Amino acid sequence: MENFKTLVEEMKLYFNVTSLEMVAEKLGLKKSTAIGWRQRKRISSHAILKFNQLKYKQNNYINLVSKNLQQTEKINNKDTILIPFYKNYYLSSDFTTDSNITTQTIPFNKNELNSMFNLQEFLKMGIVSMIGNSMEPTIKEGEMVVFQKDKSTIEGGIYIVEFQKEILIKRLKKRPLCLTSDNKEYPIIDIKNPNELKIIGRIIGTYKIDYKKL
């Protein structure tokens, strides 16, 4: 309840409006959508993601957090999972806790997540906003990127990685070891020392107003 009120006030302040109905309009939704939000005391995940896109799309780097993803499986009830959206991150592959990091949890229905991304489990998940066009056309700038720390190293899979103190979203190639972009204007990054490459999580899909499985 308190989180709902806080988020509503944040949205009203951001859009400089005075009602929840006006917030819905600013997000491209019908005014009547706000009625359902009030009744459930919860803003829909679609609306929260759209709001975060508007707020953070212009950042110059992907915003993630140095925080342990063990907490992503917090459950409101048996059908809902809260996934953290990382607003501003100073990423380390071991997710060392940083008290200055800001996150916002977004509620998702488990069945909805499973139908979108064919998930077998809902552990250690997170969402970041894609900055830049290096992975186009697969991932477009401004799309919400859903990742999971599953300890995999799939040939050709898309991962969030740390390399030479930079955070990148790239495809992983293992023979020879390198990172590639789907946008061919970006050069291949050769990995001479495997110890310099730290995998943070595997990209399982993107989430905008629509979604696609990768």
What this model shows, in words?
With 214 residues, the chain is an alpha+beta fold. It folds into two domains: 2-43, no CATH class; 69-213, Umud Fragment, subunit A. Helices cover 23% and strands 30% of the residues. The chain has five helices and eleven strands. Strands 4, 5, 6, 7, 8, 9, 10 and 11 form an eight-stranded antiparallel beta sheet that branches. Strand 10 and strand 11 form a beta hairpin. Helix 1 (2-15) crosses helix 2. The longest helix is centred in the N-terminal third of the chain and has 14 residues, at 2-15.
Report the CATH topology name of the largest domain: Umud Fragment, subunit A
* Tally of discrete structural domains: 2
The parts where pLDDT drops under 50 for at least 5 residues are 57-76, 89-100
The CATH fourth-level homologous superfamily of the largest domain: Umud Fragment, subunit A
The number of helical segments is 5
Rounded radius of gyration (Å): 18 Å
Largest sheet geometry: 8 strands, antiparallel
| Strand coverage percent | 25-35%
What's the architecture of the largest domain, going by CATH? Answer: Ribbon
Distance between the termini: 35 Å
Q: Which class do the helix and strand fractions yield?
A: alpha+beta
Helix content: 10-25%
The general outline is elongated
> Which CATH class of the largest domain applies here?
Mainly Beta
Assembly type:
single chain
Count of distinct strands: 11
Order of helices and strands: HHHHEEEHEEEEEEEE
Overall mean pLDDT: 77
Protein name: Peptidase S24 LexA-like protein
Pfam families: Peptidase_S24 (PF00717)
GO molecular function: DNA binding
Organism: Campylobacter armoricus
